[in-house]
Amino acid sequence: MDVKAPLGTEDILPEQAALWQQVEATTRALFARYSYGEIRTPIFESTRLFVRSIGDTTDIVEKEMYTIGEGDDSLTLRPEATAPVVRAYMEHNLHKTKSFQKLYYIGPMFRHERPQAGRKRQFHQIGVEAIGATDPLLDAEVIGLACHLFDDLGVGGYRVRLNAIGTPSSRGGYRDLITAELTRQLQSLCPDCRRRLDRNVFRVLDCKNEGCVAISRGLPHILGHLPEAEQAHFRRATEALRSTGVPFEEDPYLVRGFDYYTGVVFEITHGALGAQDALCGGGRYDNLIADLGGPSLGAVGFAIGIERLLMALQATAGAAETPPLDLYIVTMGDAARRAAFAYLSQLRHSGFAADTDYEGRSLKAQMRTANKLRARFTTVIGDNEIASGTLKLKHMATGAETQVSGVETILQELREHAGESAGGLELNT
Ligand code: HAM
Questions:
Q1: Dihedral, CA atoms, 81, 87, 89, 90, nearest 10 degrees?
Q2: Residue nearest to atom 13 of ligand 1 (CA)
């Protein structure tokens, strides 16, 4: 069949899925310690939700959404989950039961981008949204949480950058200032930035083109042009972050590709990722809930790209291994296979990972499989074992053999060695 997975998508096969599960389990355990509860929203939403929240002059809304249908019936595969989480928060009146909610999600997002390393059309995010508070300590908590997760997972060498970009009204003066300055240097800007000048001038600060970088580095910094209260918020958030020992840099040129941000924005990058080096992005969005028809409530959040996280993890920590098997039962003959099958059922119901051969392969081939599955113990069942009712359990790390009879004695032996790492001894085949 000449059909492949669509461009920019990926199958996650069992070997890789082990690492995904490990990342997800670490995430869930850590987020619970910070009192975040999981929220699952649909994979598609009304297109209007994204247009109104992300903004109709952003790259995502202008050209990257998977949309079907027209007008009010138009639906879009979610390109991100902040707006869907806010929609769900309002739809279920969560603010009426408990206005302050800490929510997290793990799931796929969809953007019709040009695929390249680290840039997919279907990718996955781990994200948090803390809705219902404007406290700058919460900005620091959220950034610290992303870093805590990277630390728990063993992702070293990340870089945290922070800026404050104000609200659409508080940054108006700065916008006019840089628009005037950039218009004077229009001929030196790249064609994209020339277009950005009237539509989304802040994106010029973010442009990677060398000429544009040189020009934007000559512009005044936004922070000094924001109202004192917003500058104070930024100072408190950075002080709080410093108090937790999270290393970060203030980056006056950091802007983000969503219209909903209203204050602190941040990005966490990693050197091993190449051109698409953002592992995580986020910020404060104090107007979004009200803009979507809800009450006026502050909120802050982030999202981490899981594919990129795994790339960084593999670069720093090496590949994770699938969990080892407790027992592999090697069988010789039909009666042995039936006996093994009955043992397996009891072992698995007792909480052990156990397996056997279903292909009638040679002893040697079965031994190879036991090695591949990193079995802690192996046993061989043949006619003699069936006749005597006893088995020899071989502890793979030491080579020691124990005589056992009946499933209870097998379980006892496995329990004594539970939690050990995989068998390191090569099988004699
Ligand atoms: P974002 O910066 O668009 O923010 O995405 C967050 C992360 O998702 C990126 O840093 C990157 O790791 C990953 N990512 C984005 N696009 C792709 C792609 N095409 N392929 C692979 N990975 C990708 C948001 O989505 C905001 N909703 C974050 C947020 C939450 N702000 C406040 N709350």
A1: 170
A2: 305
- Pocket of ligand 1 contains residue 125 by CB under 6 Å: yes
- 30 near 142, Cβ under 8 Å? no
The angle subtended at Cα 209 by Cα 197 and Cα 260, nearest 5°, is: 50
The burial class, CB within 10 Å (0-12 / 13-18 / 19+), for 327 is buried
Q: pTM for the whole thing?
A: 0.89
CA angle at 43 for the pair 37 and 45, rounded to the nearest 5°: 105
| DSSP 8-state code for residue 351 | T
139 lines ligand 1 (CB under 6 A): no
Instruction: Decide: 305 in ligand 1 pocket, CB within 6 A.
Output: yes
What pLDDT, on the 0 to 100 scale, is given for residue 406? 87
Between strands 122-131 and 158-164, the pairing is unpaired
Residue 395 CB less than 6 A away from ligand 1 = no
- Give yes or no for a contact between 353 and 386, defined as CB atoms under 8 angstroms apart: no
**Tokens describing residue 352:** 């052990």
pLDDT at 378 over 80: yes
Please enumerate in sequence order all residues whose Cβ is within 8 A of that of 195, keeping only pairs 6 or more positions apart, or say none: none
The CB of 280 under 6 Å from ligand 1? The reply is: yes
Cα of 406 from ligand 1 centre, angstroms: 54
Largest Cα–Cα distance of the chain, in whole Å?
Answer: 94
Residue with tokens 């619970």: 32
